[in-house]
Design a protein that fits this description.
Layout lengths: L1 E5 L4 H5 L2 H9 L3 E6 L4 H6 L3 E4 L17 H7 L7 H26 L3 E4 L5 H9 L3 E4 L7 H4 L1 H10 L15 E4 L16 E3 L25 E5 L8 H12 L4 E5 L16 E4 L4 H4 L5 E4 L3 H9 L4 E3 L11
Parallel strand pairs: 1-2, 1-4, 2-3, 4-5, 5-6, 6-7, 8-9, 8-11, 9-10, 11-12
Length: 323
């Protein structure tokens, strides 16, 4: 069978899906990813075929900042709950951009199933148009799109000639996959009805630009790891505050900045702090005693997987404050 994964061109979105894709590939199925052209190497390094679709994001910084429409969408939802403007941008702008190439991919490659990330709605529309099943890979929180952006998604369906679905019963009708344990629940935000939980390890190693493990992990002191992820990481003041605080403690601190952050912005670094752009958490966290991070799903999944205490500093994505 052929399985087409669709995701936003951001490392966190891609990494959350790789283990599901690998499980299918291991069973002998054909698996491909449709995402931005800039993520072709990351997809191929993970071992999958890449179809170039959607925004051609050229870096790992926050995808929406590249959109000319983003300021006006922010203005429309300035007083709305966190994440509302972001969700509308994914539906109103990124989904049509994705569909401009994805529709042809679906028609030519003829997948039996579409697997999409929870903020990639082009895969939902493309699958509905050719009447094939579509599956969602959830993060820590199930995003209630039917509540937050119902009108925008109904308008998107009409734009592409799909039948009216006032209650959006077609959005998650088949299966929603989650790597979170059963004890992880949100009050007031129910999970999807057809939720299936998978005990899958986190993935974060695509072999691109990885820095080696530092010698500080063997210092004999407690090891504290700090990261702001690879997307909402453009915050020198936050990094400097973390580094200053850890530099004053009897710990060995490892701080990763993300692919797009310039370490020269941070100035002098204390001797007990090691700064790198990217070290896979699957390699680093077995040596750590605690984690400071931005409340993003992949880092949360990794910290829970390794049983580490956490300090969370939400940076801007809609799911980070609930986490």
């Amino acid at each position: 069978m052929r399985f087409l994964f669709t995701c936003i061109p951001a490392f966190g979105h891609l990494h959350a899906m790789v283990h599901y894709a690998q499980a299918l590939k291991d069973q002998g199925h054909d698996v491909a990813f449709a995402t931005g052209a800039a993520f072709a190497q990351a997809v191929r390094s993970a071992g999958f075929h890449h179809f170039s679709c959607g925004i051609e994001n050229a870096s790992s910084v926050e995808v929406l900042t590249h959109l000319p429409e983003w300021p006006s969408i922010q203005d429309r939802f300035r007083d709305a709950p966190p994440g509302t403007a972001q969700l509308h941008a994914f539906i109103e702008v990124l989904a049509p951009q994705m569909l401009s190439g994805l529709s042809a991919v679906v028609e030519k490659w003829n997948p039996h199933l579409v697997v999409r990330d929870p903020l990639e709605f082009g895969g939902y529309i493309a699958a509905e148009r050719v009447e094939i099943p579509h599956v969602v890979v959830d993060w820590a929180i199930h995003i209630p799109t039917q509540v937050i952006a119902k009108d925008a998604l109904c308008l998107l369906r009409r734009r592409y000639g799909l039948p009216e679905d006032a209650n959006l019963e077609t959005l998650d009708p088949h299966l929603v996959l989650s790597a979170m344990p059963r004890s992880w629940q949100y009050y007031g935000v129910p999970y999807a009805e057809r939720l299936f939980r998978c005990q899958l390890p986190p993935y974060d190693n695509d072999g691109q630009f990885d820095d080696p493990l530092p010698d500080l992990i063997h210092s004999g002191r407690p090891v504290v790891y700090a990261t702001l992820g690879t997307t909402f990481n453009q915050s020198p003041d936050t990094f400097q505050s973390i580094i200053e605080a850890l530099g004053a403690e009897d710990v060995s601190a490892i701080v990763t900045l993300g692919h797009s952050f310039d370490p020269s912005e941070l100035g002098a670094i204390p001797k007990n702090v090691h700064v790198a752009n990217y070290i896979p958490q699957t390699s680093l966290l077995p040596h750590c005693d605690a984690v400071i991070f931005h409340a993003g799903f992949n880092s949360l999944h990794s910290a829970l997987w390794h049983g580490l205490p956490m300090i969370l500093i939400p940076m801007g994505a809609g799911d980070q404050v609930p986490n």
